[in-house]
Amino acid sequence: MQPLELPTFDTLRCELEAGNLHLWLQRPSARNAMSLKMVEELLALFERIEPRRDVRALVIRGSDGNFCAGGDIKDMASARATPAGADTDPFFELNRAFGRMITRANRLPQVVVAVLEGAVLGGGFGLACVSDVAIAVEGVQFGLPETGLGIPPAQIAPFVVKRIGLTEARRLMLLGSRFGAEEALHLGLVHYHSSADALDEQLAAVLAQVKRCAPEANATTKSLLLATETMEHEALLDYAAQQFAAAVRSDEGGEGTLAFIQKRPPSWAQ
């Protein structure tokens, strides 16, 4: 497999290290608010890495101490300025573009780790909800401010409900609530609560655990977990058995079995 090559982005910064792709949202002057340009660049990045099993984890964080402060109000203003009689509704297209991006993020076969600092609002909150592992850093502020601005949290609502449940999603969205790391941990929104000083150690521990798991097995497991939301029970179990049989016969399955017998780490963990 050829080394991963990434284009130069205007709103993202990427660094590949030991099979982990570290991604920084890079609009610090706007607290990394998500512009349409950023959405398009994220989609391009996800498309590039989706087939790559040499990328074991995607670590998403924001630059300069903020994760993401939601959608970019400037894009809303630009959409409002679109002349009447346009073929498509610019507000629909703007909102739906974010939905396509977050859906793609949710389905990535890699382990998605979100490092949540500073502002995690609106669309940033939604992005946190599709991570496989989320680390909240001391001082973080989560919030769903959309209803206070006269709009619904349209594209993120399904992902928030799936993450924390309908009852809590109702409370947070309908009150436009803000809260910190402790409540996020209680809600199940995040998995770890770290001080800024201990963040590097916590992240390294998570990535070390990712390394122990076979990349194709992780990708298959994620697909099975997502299938629980759409497939009928017996059909899902048939599909799962098919995936299990294929995995046992695969190179990964053979290497995992041999490594266990020989009492050594499998090749992907070395």
From TrEMBL:
SUPFAM superfamilies (alphabetical): ClpP/crotonase (SSF52096)
Annotated protein name in UniProt: Enoyl-CoA hydratase/isomerase family protein
Source organism superkingdom: Bacteria
Pfam family, one: ECH_1
UniProt KW keywords: Isomerase
InterPro entries assigned: ClpP/crotonase-like_dom_sf, Enoyl-CoA_hydra/iso, Enoyl-CoA_hydra_C, Enoyl-CoA_Hydratase/Isomerase
CDD domains assigned: crotonase-like
Record flagged with keyword Isomerase: yes
GO-annotated molecular function: isomerase activity
GO biological process, one term: isoprenoid catabolic process
UniProt family annotation: Belongs to the enoyl-CoA hydratase/isomerase family.
PANTHER family: ENOYL-COA HYDRATASE, POLYKETIDE BIOSYNTHESIS ENOYL-COA HYDRATASE PKSH-RELATED
